[in-house]
Amino acid sequence: MASVLVIGSGGREHALAWKLAQSPEVDKVYVAPGNGGIATEFENVPIKPTDFKALANFVEEKEINLTVVGPDAPLAEGIVDYFNEIKLRIFGPTKNAAQIEADKYFAKKLMLDGHIPTAFYVPARLDSIDVAIEAAYNFIEQFGGVVIKYPYLAAGKGVYVCKTRCEAENAIKDITDGKFGKTNIILLEELLKGEEASFLAFVDGETVVPLLPAQDHKPIYDGDKGPNTGGMGAYAPAPIVDEEMQKRIMKEIMKPMIDEMKEVEIGYKGVLYAGLMITEDGPKVLEFNCRFGDPETQPLMVLLESDLYNIMNAAVDRRLNKIDKLKFKPGYAVTVVMASQGYPGSYEKGKLITGLNEISIKQTGTPFDKYRGVNVFHAGTKLGEEGNLLTNGGRVLGVTAWDATLSGAQGIAYDNIAKINFDGVFYRTDIADKGIRRIRS
Ligand code: AMP
Ligand code: GLY
Fold first, then answer.
1. DSSP secondary structure code for residue 380 in this structure
2. Which domains, ranges and CATH numbers included, belong to the chain?
3. Model-level pTM?
């Protein structure tokens, strides 16, 4: 039997631990550092995701067979290189490969060299701010808007969609003021129009094995209004990416990107996540991430029927071309994030969470019952002194439901959300509406 260590503490890591634990080969799952909900099912390990030495010592001491990395920071700082050096098995890209997320300029150059469809862009140097503002204004004139990006990791916050000169000036000012860190370059991108989708695939350096296409909901309010968050809900499969579109994404984006990584002698192993805009001219890349998405991983893991532990080992051993075709549950899954009032700004912590024991689904007595289910993945939660669950973050819970239809899965998710409560709870009420409208039209 095998043991696994998952690194991270969000809903993504809870979903990965939950899925890995279902493998008949896995009998023990540790999560570092984990959260309150994870602690009730698996074993939390109080080590920070960037303390590579302590993590490696723990893995050696417990003879853990595979380490799986959730967040971007340890990947960008080289945890995979560190583990590889001392011959510990780990699933994820190396430090150089993780630059496709950590350095947007690097990612854009690879896309350009590999002829991968993406928004037209120019890098603007910040030695002359007036020139950068002028260049941004030219984009607004030409494309009806400009997207201004801080090129390095900024916890999803370094992207400004600007439609006026004033917005562009303010964005450039924020970045030059050092809001995200130092840079002497920014990216100016054409404003793409269309619907967004998240496309994630397992990669072993050569072979690309896709998961189902998903759709995230980044803005905080219904109707995609308000500031961007890490993601307020997701569903899969997203009908905007039909089979034809999946083939195009694989052929025009995923495979060429992996070939390009080989070409520059970096190579890519782990999960490759393409954030896409599905435009009238086809799929275009908004960004690449070097990790699983959150919350996308929650609906994706409940739909995946194949053994995640086997898939990850095959990726580590470069034999993804030898595994069986991935199997998925029929139907759809929806995750609705329950957040703390104030997120993505400041919010209070330590609120008592009630109703988690009441999670259930109504059986209809039809054969469809076997396709229905619900599970709550924890993100910002901790255990109180009496073992009760308290809020401990912006995104608190991911209520994840699945059913034969997308509207059915959405219904189960919201029925169960109504049973859960904490002081200041906030959630979007329209997760998956876009997909439902598309299916009905
Ligand atoms: P990113 O972190 O680069 O994915 O950007 C965050 C969000 O900004 C995306 O999910 C999009 O909603 C938006 N965005 C980024 N780049 C563009 C673009 N070129 N055109 C339109 N929207 C964009
Ligand atoms: N849900 C967006 C991300 O994980 O980057």
1. S
2. 2-92 (3.40.50.20), 120-190 (3.30.1490.20), 330-441 (3.90.600.10)
3. 0.96
